[in-house]
Prior knowledge:
Elements: E1 6-11, H1 21-36, E2 38-46, E3 63-69, H2 77-85, H3 93-96, H4 101-113
Parallel strand pairs: 1-2, 2-3
Amino acid sequence: xxxxxxxxxxxxxxxxxxxxxxxxxxxxxxxxxxxxxxxxxxxxxxxxxxxxxxxxxxxxxxxxxxxxxxxxxxxxxxxxxxxxxxxxxxxxxxxxxxxxxxxxxxxxxxxxxxx
Length: 115
């Protein structure tokens, strides 16, 4: 058998609760991948968000790394200000809202670290 792959899975937020088809599918894929490969989960975590108690102990990834993010609640004044400001961006809001310098730095670190 060949050497295990090192897989970095980047997501905008936590996986739990498994309350959507997308989360269930991602969980199933990662659980299977982790059986043979080294999977690291890197995700944003909104400042005021509390992780579901099942998130950390679940073996869907060998490592889980969280980057605190500042995401406005949909419908809030800050949300509408960001949507309005996004009119001047070259990226759609759905992409622009997840841009995060710390996540980019972690991606570069993983790319060069051999971790």
